[in-house]
Design brief:
Elements: H1 2-8, H2 11-14, H3 19-23, H4 54-74, H5 76-83, H6 88-104, H7 106-117, H8 119-140, H9 148-179, H10 186-216, E1 219-220, E2 223-224, H11 226-246, H12 260-277, H13 299-314, H14 319-325, H15 331-336, H16 356-378, H17 385-411, E3 422-429, E4 436-439, E5 459-462, E6 467-476, E7 479-488, E8 492-500, E9 503-510, E10 521-527, E11 533-537, E12 541-545, E13 550-551, E14 555-557, E15 560-569, E16 572-581, E17 586-595, E18 598-607, H18 618-641, H19 648-672, H20 677-701, H21 707-720
Parallel strand pairs: 3-8, 10-17
Antiparallel strand pairs: 1-2, 3-5, 4-6, 6-7, 8-9, 10-13, 10-14, 11-12, 11-15, 15-16, 17-18
Helix pairs in contact: 1-10, 1-18, 4-9, 4-10, 4-11, 5-6, 6-9, 6-19, 7-8, 7-9, 8-9, 8-11, 10-11, 10-16, 13-21, 14-19, 14-20, 16-18, 17-18, 17-20
Membrane topology: Multi-pass membrane protein
GO molecular function, one term: dipeptide transmembrane transporter activity
InterPro entries: MFS_trans_sf, Oligopep_transport, POT_fam, PTR2_symporter_CS, SLC15A2
Length: 735
């Protein structure tokens, strides 16, 4: 919600600025509108007030669109991980590539609205693109539709269209809402923007809580229902478009007036080009490099561009904050999949934790504005905007420091990382008496393994190559038996010892090498009966297990305290009690016998369950949300206060681009420099602290100005320097 919520809650600054100026990305100056546009159209009012009826359609449209966007994005990382089976780094990289694109495309939407179509048509056309993208994305999530290549292509095309749509309309909708008010109704317009951005937060809050439920708690096609999780946001976007079109006859529509952002870019480009053309020492230097644009552009525009470039220079360190902030939907969500999500009365989905951010923002805004900031003022501490932003950076860095600590604790239940020529092994004694196991030339298993003894930790086995044939000797009731097995490097094994046909036997089976993904539980069965069995788990999983201690493949199940099933044998059908299958654990369940009309089992935990509770993520969400309030809201208000009114849209474009650059940095780190997750969190923490120091130094030397005073000084400087001009050569004219 980076840009949306920041603009939403700049209450203190909004009291001093026209809302249309503040939020109008596509404003192009004070030129009067041209053409036959119903600019002065009198719109019907709401219940006799001064609020145009048309704003109701705009607010509902914005709620539905934000629900659509944030709901879809909430489940996106797990979609890549679970549906496409991409690794965490690739899933993170694509997620942030999409996020970056969503913040590059507002520039396209602004240019379309200002220079070509106007706000109304831009919103309509790009919303249609938006809807098509959602529909393609939803269809691409249907498992039965083609192979994975088809799913990937459809999803990427859908995400590109969604990015174009959501980014393109982002700068237009709020400004279009401001256009509906008559100039004398500034108070009503101010309250409209509060309601407008409340709808943004409401849509975000509800969608980030609901869509993960649609994904995880609803099953379709035998697995998580991503088609529904994407389909509902698609339906909301269709509704948003329908509602917006329904109010068409009520809107006041302004004409395209030219894009100031393009003018600024042209002015800067001309100044650089003209300076390079006039490098002779005979030509006097000018006070500022932008003064080299004076042959083509007005003094007023050049002066305003100077003011903007001062602020844009301060934006250079800002992308690092967004690099950390937007990882709530990627790395932090992936971290949540490795945690215990049982809150007693409710089991939270890992991607639901994201709803904390919009919720905390709504809580923190009044606390900071009405409590914290006044208290700091009472203490006579000059808490300047630069200091607030630096504090926000520090809080975000601390949040990632906590995330690193939690990641280290999570890793304690992971399987050990194996080096080349290493493997892991343990013994499951399913016989009736203790068994002594020895391995050729290895010093393992010093004590006898008791019957049905809960296995100890895996023992590390060092091989003499990529694989090695080893001799296992079993001593049981005075008998000694030997078996040869080939073991491969970087593999995990269980040696099953059992009695078959009156003698001792064994079997070497392969275990999981890593925890199950997404907090699922992995379970396999060993059939100790003398007949084949068919198992049904949760009415969805069907597992056939052969007799005489044959193992099944692992099956992934949702975490449940009371897992039950059925065991079908030649003699009948029997209930099967599995007990707790916990988050991230792996189990081996041995069917020992049938007694009393029920199947008797013995359960072993191969990989430990997730023992770090998801509630431990709350402090890092508290810190980064508080950091967002101090950094984002303060930053926009401060930067806008330092620029002339006609340049607000340029600064908003620059602000959105810092978000895009931050996301781009994350995808580069994820793909180019893969490392342990805790180390990556530490890296981002250190980088943000370093950037914070740089930003603080830049802010220390920054002198706040009043744009009006700076304009007057610029005019005086231009007047005094007129006499110093001599002949210059430009591209088209010789002066």
């Amino acid at each position: 919600m980076v840009g949306d919520k920041a603009r939403a809650e700049m209450n203190a600054f909004q009291r001093n600025e026209s809302k249309e100026t503040l939020f109008n990305f596509v404003s192009a100056g004070d030129d009067p509108p041209k053409g036959d546009f119903p600019l002065r159209k009198k719109s019907p009012k709401l219940c006799g007030s001064n609020y145009p009826l048309s704003i109701a359609f705009i607010v509902v449209n914005e709620f539905c669109e934000r629900f659509s966007y944030y709901g879809m994005r909430a489940v996106l990382t797990l979609y890549f991980l679970s549906f496409f089976h991409w690794d965490e780094n690739l899933s993170t990289a694509v997620y942030h590539a999409f996020s970056a694109l969503c913040y590059f495309t507002p520039v396209i939407g602004a240019i379309m609205a200002d220079s070509w179509l106007g706000k109304y048509k831009t919103i309509i056309y790009l919303s249609i693109v938006y809807v098509v993208g959602h529909l393609i994305k939803s269809v691409g999530a249907i498992p039965s539709l083609g192979n994975q290549a088809v799913h990937v292509v459809l999803s990427m095309v859908g995400l590109f269209l969604i990015a174009l749509g959501t980014g393109g309309i982002k700068p237009c909708v709020s400004a279009f809402g401001g256009d509906q008010f008559e100039e004398e109704h500034t108070s009503e317009r101010s309250k409209f923007f509060s309601i407008f951005y409340l709808s943004i937060n409401a849509g975000s809050l509800i969608s980030t809580f609901v869509t993960p439920v649609l994904r995880g708690d609803v099953k379709c096609f035998g697995e998580d229902c991503y088609a529904l999780a994407f389909g509902v946001p698609a339906a909301l976007m269709v509704l948003a478009l329908v509602v917006f079109i329904a109010g068409s006859g009520l809107y006041r529509k302004t004409p395209p007036q030219g894009n100031v952002l393009l003018e600024v870019c042209k002015c800067i480009g001309f100044a650089i080009k003209n300076r390079l053309k006039n490098r002779s020492r005979e030509i006097p230097k000018r006070d500022h490099w932008l003064d080299w644009a004076s042959e083509k552009y007005s003094k007023q525009l050049i002066g305003e561009v100077k003011m903007v470039t001062r602020v844009l220079f301060l934006f250079i360190p800002l992308p690092m904050f967004w690099a950390l902030f937007d990882q709530q939907g990627s790395r932090w969500t992936l971290q949540a999949t490795k945690m215990n999500a049982d809150f007693g009365i409710y089991v939270l989905q890992p991607d639901q934790m994201q709803f904390l951010n919009p919720l905390l923002i709504l809580v923190f805004i009044p606390i900071f504005d009405l409590g914290l900031y006044p208290l700091i003022d009472m203490c006579k501490f000059n808490f300047t905007p630069i200091r607030k932003m630096a504090t926000g950076m520090i809080l975000a860095g601390l949040a990632f420091g906590l995330a690193a600590v939690i990641e280290i604790k999570i890793n304690e239940t992971d399987m050990p990382r194996l080096a080349p020529e290493e493997s892991l092994i343990r013994v499951l004694n399913l016989a009736k008496n203790p068994v002594q196991v020895t391995v050729q030339d290895k010093d393992l298993f010093q004590q006898p393994v008791e019957a049905f003894q809960n296995p100890a930790e895996y023992s590390k086995l060092v091989l003499n190559g990529e694989q090695q044939s080893l001799r296992f000797t079993l001593q049981h009731q005075g008998l000694t038996l030997a078996f040869n097995y080939t073991m491969k490097e970087k593999s995990v094994y269980s040696l099953i010892v059992f009695e078959a046909e009156g003698s001792l036997s064994s079997r070497l089976i392969t275990d999981l090498e890593a925890k199950p993904e997404n907090g699922l539980a992995a379970v396999r069965f060993i059939n100790g009966l003398s007949q084949d069995v068919n198992l049904t788990i949760d009415s969805r999983k069907f597992i056939a297990v052969q007799k005489n201690y044959s193992p099944s493949e692992y099956s992934l199940l949702e975490r449940d305290i009371y897992n039950t099933g059925k065991c079908i044998t030649e003699t009948g059908e029997f209930p099967l009690e599995l007990g707790l299958l916990d988050f991230g654990a792996s189990y081996t369940i041995v069917i020992t016998n049938i007694s009393g009309g029920a199947v008797k089992t013995w359960k072993s935990e191969d990989i430990k369950a997730n023992n770090v509770h998801m509630a431990w993520q709350l402090p890092q969400y508290l810190l980064i949300s508080a950091g967002e309030v101090m950094f984002s809201i303060t930053g926009l208000a401060f930067s806008y206060s330092q620029s002339p009114a006609s340049m607000k849209s340029v600064l908003q474009a620059g602000w959105l681009l810092t978000v895009a650059v931050g996301n781009t940095f994350v995808l580069i780190v994820a793909e180019a420099a893969p490392m342990a997750q805790w180390a990556e969190f530490v890296l981002f923490t250190v980088l943000l602290f370093a950037v914070c120091i740089i930003f603080s130094i830049m802010g220390y030397f920054y002198i706040s100005v009043d744009p009006e005073d700076l304009e007057e000084k610029e005019e005086k400087r231009e007047t005094s320097s007129r006499g110093n001009m001599i002949g210059l050569v430009t591209q088209k004219t010789k002066l």
